[in-house]
Write a structure and sequence with these properties.
Layout (H helix, E strand, L loop, with lengths): L1 H22 L3 E14 L5 E12 L14 E2 H14 L1 E4 L10 H9 L4 E8 L4 E9 L10 H11 L8
Antiparallel strand pairs: 1-2, 1-6, 2-3, 4-5, 5-6
Helix pairs in contact: 1-4
Length: 165
């Protein structure tokens, strides 16, 4: 059933991420990250990862950054992800400003070719279930309202809490 749900919702998920990219004329890529836990240690400790689910680069020659944002280990990034989730939103006007306080996220942004970024937490019913990351070559002049798309993505991504089996 879960796999069927993915097949049913993939188009809508991609459409909402595309809508965000269209709304924000200054960005060069929009990433949808989502939490998953597909592995556990021999002792039963479950690993939690933040993984790129989809991205929408601008233009036909847009820069793809999927390889840089896949399988981010939650324990390793916990302090930086907690900072983002506690604020629900983090705007980074210049990535050099976070180099000392968020060095791991800084490196991800740097190798992605971003000089500025905005992070939006996607909240599920019980906890954060992912985030939208918008990448910019230079500091954006304004903030784009993407609340509607985030709410729609939250509903689609919070599969377990939708009482589906």
């Amino acid at each position: 059933m879960a796999e069927s749900y993915t097949l049913e919702t993939a188009s809508a998920i991609n459409m909402y991420v595309s809508d965000i990219a269209k709304k924000d004329q200054e960005c060069f890529n929009v990433l949808l990250l989502n939490y998953h836990n597909t592995q556990k240690s021999l002792q039963g400790y479950r690993y939690l990862y933040l993984n790129l689910l989809t991205e929408k680069p601008k233009g036909i020659n847009g820069e793809l950054v999927k390889d840089y944002w896949s399988n981010l280990e939650y324990v390793y990034y916990e302090d930086e992800l907690t900072r983002i989730h506690n604020n629900d939103y983090l705007e980074i006007s210049n990535i050099e400003d976070i180099k000392a306080i968020m060095p791991k996220i800084y490196k991800k942004l740097k190798i992605s070719g971003a000089n500025a970024a905005t992070f939006y937490t996607i909240e599920g019913l019980q906890n954060p279930i992912g985030m939208i990351v918008i990448l910019y070559k230079e500091r954006p002049k304004g903030r784009t309202n993407i609340l509607t798309e985030i709410q729609r993505l939250a509903v689609l991504l919070d599969y377990k809490n939708l009482n589906r089996k």
